[in-house]
Structure formats: C-alpha cells, structure tokens
Amino acid sequence: MALDVSMKVARHEMGSKGEFDRQKSSFTCSFGTNPGDLPVVSGRYRMLVVDACPWCHRTLAVMKLLGLEKHISIGKASSVKVDKKAGWPFSLDPNHEDPILGIKHVTDIYLATDPNYEKRSTVPVLVDLKTGKIATNDFYNMTKILECDFKPLHKEGAVDLYPKELEADLDHINQIIYDDVNNGVYKTGFATSQEAYEHNYDRLFNRLDILEDFFGKHEYLVGDRFTDADIRLFVTLARFDIAYYTVFKCNRNLLVQFPNLWKYSKKIYSIPEIRETTNFEAIKRMYWNIEKDPFGIVPKGPDLSCWEE
C-alpha cells in the first residue's frame, strides 16, 4: 500500500506545491509463454497483502472470485504497529514471521530482491517462490494480471472480469477512477498545502457527483455487467465513511448521502466474495493508526449495520 504510516507519505512523493505524487511500482514483469515471461503455474507464487489496504482488498476479491487462492498462496501482514523502516509486520503469524517465506516484515522481501531498495515497501506484492524474489509489485495492474494473464488457472465457470471486448473501455474508466477517486482520496488527505488539498477535494467530489448521476441510469460502470472496474471503485467507496471522510478530510458528503452510489455500493457488497474480503474493522484500525491518536483510540462508529440492508 502506498503510504508510510509513520510519516503518512515519503519525501520523494511530495511535490513542490504540497501535492502528493504516489511512487511508481519498482518491480514489474510479464507472465505467459513468450521468452522472458514468468510461467503461469500453480503453487509458484505467493501474494503478500494487508487486509485494510484498498489495493490489496481488490486483489483479494479478484483472487476469491476467480478461485486463484487455490493456486497462489496468500500471506497477510498486519496493518498496525508498523515499524517505519521495516514496514508491514507479519505479526498475525506464529513467531511473527511469514510461514512460507520466513520473513518478519514485507520490507525483507524487497531487500532480498534488491539490497539497495530505498523506497517504501508496498503491498500487494507477488513473490516468486522459486527465486525467493519479487515477481511484481504493480499495484495498479495487479488485478488485471490475475484476470488476464492467470486465466489458465481460473476456476471453472469463473466470471470474466476483464472481457476482451470491453478491455479498451475498462482501461479508460479504470484510469479515471484511479486518478480521481482511488488515488484522489489520498491526494486530498496527504496534501501539505491548502491549494493542493482544495484542488484534489474538488476533483474528487466532482467525480463522485458524476458517478452519482451515472448510477441513476446504469447498474455497472462498464457495459451491463459486473467487471474489474466495479471492484476498483467499490474498495474506495467501502472506506469512505469510516476513513476518508474524517481521516483524509474528504468531508463534503458521506457515501450514504449519495443515494445512487450508496445503492450501488451495497449491491456490490452483497456479492459473497466481495463481502468476505471486506474487513471493516481492519480498515478502521489502519486508517486511524495512520492518524496516530496519542491514546490509541479507534472511533466506535459509524454504525456499519447499514451495509447489511
């Protein structure tokens, strides 16, 4: 996840005018059967995630929908008590280390891949168990990689989340959603100048207003079917009222005050695989850990039972 919970953001991600510029993924590769590709085979890879992270959330949802958790093992790090240098800890596991990789922090796999790595160690990150190094930490494209490149390992009857005939439309809308919404809340919350904050605040809510109108006439983002784009939008909406509205000062409207967006969000949440991978308590703990209440207090509200309606 592209944030440093001790400093909120790294220095190399701050622009001269107080704008947040998220770091690019350092490790990318191609999967397939062409020369230089990594093979798509069962049991070779391990996905390291943090439940509360939106980029991890959408990765976990896609893996569950496609049945890929049977072929790609999952290692979960904790989203709290994160050491500034060591990064996300495997404190949820016995001996506080990942049982497959034998590492205590996500940063350990970054340094095993590149001993000179100095940027933030982000999740999700896909590890090649054969080499013991990172295959890719491309958070933006991770779900598309799983949906398209790993198709040979999809379970029988799996939903096609990135259909070829919609690929151009999905690529287009996903970039918009990322710039204005997924990353928009971070550009708002991590701004260090009033100008940068208000610019991104306005851009975020302008896009949410457009989406509110759009979902008054449409059921899904692209075409007439549930796709990758809906998962990408949902993970931000799921965090809006319990985190971004308060912690990131995105406080013009709550999600529940957008009738169409709220109805759409609950519809996506009702999908069993989405519901199963949505950990509201972990989300709340992580974002308020970022805020670092000096007494360690996590807000009791809001009432999350409304998601069950």
TrEMBL record:
Catalytic residues of the enzyme: C53 (nucleophile), Y186 (proton donor/acceptor)
One GO location term (cellular component): cytoplasm
CDD domains, per the entry: GST_C_Omega_like (cd03190)
Annotated site residues (Lowers pKa of active site Cys) in this chain: Y244, Y287
GO molecular function, one term: glutathione transferase activity
Gene3D superfamilies found in the cross-reference section: 1.20.1050.10, Glutaredoxin
Residues bound to glutathione: W88, R120, S121, T122, V123
Residue ranges constituting the GST C-terminal domain according to the UniProt record: 163-290
Family matches, as InterPro entries: Glutathione-S-Trfase_C-like, Glutathione-S-Trfase_C_sf, Glutathione_S-Trfase, Glutathione_S-Trfase_N, GST_Omega-like_C, GST_Omega/GSH, Thioredoxin-like_sf
Protein name from the UniProt record: Glutathione S-transferase C-terminal domain-containing protein
